[in-house]
Design a protein that fits this description.
The chain has 17 helices and 15 strands. It has 465 residues and is of the alpha+beta class. The strands form five sheets. A six-stranded antiparallel β-sheet has the order 10-11-12-13-15-14. Strands 4-5-7 form a three-stranded antiparallel β-sheet.
Length: 465
């Protein structure tokens, strides 16, 4: 490991990691008590809306207020503020920044294999490794409580995902940088591993069904749902406010100016691609675009989809174009080394994922707004957490813990982190305690948010995606 030009040996990294325990004991991470001057959670969340599309804010609020878990998904800024008040190990990695369990899932690698990895990087920024671990561990506790598995199961799941992370980090500390870089989780290998470990036929069948469903979610299938082919040319269907074609947007700009802005964004995006991908991208022509609501926390940002056609109408490419703004972590950590937030997201994703979408890139519009691009649907899938069993959450914890450890090992010093964590369960138990405490805080914050809606102080619209 290199430290400002000086090579750091494994022994030095081990010593440095263990030394951190003196200033930041591992058990201290279990503490959580809101500060007396903690900002109002509703005000902090609503503060993100100043530059969002106002007509979509009621949708965001409705989705966040559906349950404490959906509130947690949209409250990354609130948790970042809370994390900034907790002990900081100083053992930095490239953080996902929003590493809750719904931001993990499967997708297609460029080699057309189904892989499991992180899949959301809007908030990515370098920072202390434990911030991601706390976000992930607490999400398992909250998800368990969401399906009424109880506090004890919630605590054990938080401890389990942390234990898997800790053990995986110890393994990565023994590997070469190349071995870590190439490490990823092909889904077919996971099924074989489950089979060798005695998984039931029912569980294996469920896994195969999940893989089949994910592989069916491609550009063509998405186009069948989103695109109207009844006219002279394919166009996005109109389903406001969840899907609004560009031609139906409020007159924020003259149509000619809007087209000019789109063309400028296309040129900017193309320049971010490699030479070979520019060649492939040039085979397609953009024929339509639309604002498309996605997720929970991102609702209200300018998230669009572009419809591109190749040789014929079945040669479809759907690209998602998501607005990239300041990371919520930048209020508490050093700013990104990249001036453009679209590039910040893309570069972070390329570092953290074992393999990334071939169309991943970034752009800047004529108005100065920044975006990142990727395929809308390319074998994407995630667990059904609304009906999750204890067994499903436990298996998911194993996948997420390993995946996050791999991402942190590649971008940080796995030897120092492994030395800090140690071989015992001190840190695991601390994460269990922290997760239960923060889950209770999350319930309280979600209740305040829902009360603001019920009292008419905030407008929310109950809509289905």
């Amino acid at each position: 490991m290199s430290d400002q030009g000086r090579w750091v040996t494994s022994d030095e990294a081990t010593e440095a990691g263990r030394a951190v325990r003196k200033d930041v004991p591992r058990s201290s991470h279990g503490d959580w008590t809101p500060a007396a001057d903690r900002p109002d959670p509703v005000g902090l969340i609503e503060g993100q809306n100043a530059d969002r599309l106002e007509w979509l804010l009621p949708v965001r609020r409705a989705r966040m207020s559906a349950s404490p878990f959906t509130f947690y998904r949209g409250a990354a800024r609130l948790m970042a503020t809370d994390l900034a008040a907790t002990p900081n190990s100083g053992l930095n990695v490239q953080l996902c920044g929003d590493a809750h369990l719904s931001n993990f899932g499967v997708y297609a690698s460029p080699e057309r294999k189904l892989v499991f990895d992180l899949n959301d990087f809007d908030e990515t920024l370098p920072g202390p490794f434990e911030w991601d671990v706390k976000r992930l561990a607490a999400s398992f506790a909250i998800a368990a409580q969401n399906v009424e598995l109880g506090d004890e199961v919630a605590r054990k799941l938080a401890e389990r995902v942390t234990e898997v992370y800790r053990n995986a980090m110890a393994e990565f500390a023994e590997r070469s940088w190349l071995e870590m870089w190439y490490a990823h989780l092909p889904f077919d290998d996971l099924l074989e591993l489950s089979k060798s470990r005695g998984a039931s036929k029912k569980a294996l069948k469920r896994g195969e069904k999940f893989a089949k469903k994910a592989r069916s979610k491609d550009n063509l299938r998405a186009a069948q749902k989103l695109v109207d082919r009844s006219g002279d040319a394919p166009r996005f269907r109109s389903d406001p406010p969840l899907l609004v074609p560009f031609d139906e947007l409020p007159d924020e700009a003259h149509p000619d100016r809007r087209r000019e802005s789109v063309n400028e964004s296309l040129r900017s995006y193309r320049s971010s691609l490699s030479g070979q991908m520019q060649w492939l991208f040039d085979r397609y022509q953009m024929v339509d675009g639309a604002i498309k609501v996605v997720g929970v926390g991102s609702v209200g940002t300018r998230c669009s989809v572009g419809l591109f056609l190749g040789r014929h109408e079945s040669d479809v490419l759907l690209l998602q174009i998501k607005e990239a703004t300041h990371s919520v972590l930048e209020e508490h950590l050093e700013p990104s080394r990249y001036e453009r937030h679209g590039r910040r997201v893309v570069e972070g994703q390329r570092l953290l994922q074992g393999t990334s979408d071939i169309f991943l890139g970034w752009s800047r519009s004529s108005t100065g707004r920044e975006f990142y691009w990727r395929q809308l649907k390319d074998w994407k899938g995630s667990a059904d957490l609304d009906n999750a069993s204890h067994d499903l959450l436990a298996r998911y914890a194993d996948l997420c813990g390993f995946t996050l450890a791999r991402a942190h090992a590649v971008t940080g010093d796995p030897t120092a982190i492994a030395a800090y964590l140690g071989k015992g369960d001190v840190f695991d138990r601390a994460m269990g305690e922290y997760s239960i405490r923060y889950a209770a805080q999350n319930v309280s914050d979600a209740a305040k948010f829902s009360a603001a809606i019920a009292e008419g102080r905030l407008e929310a619209s109950e809509l289905q995606s």
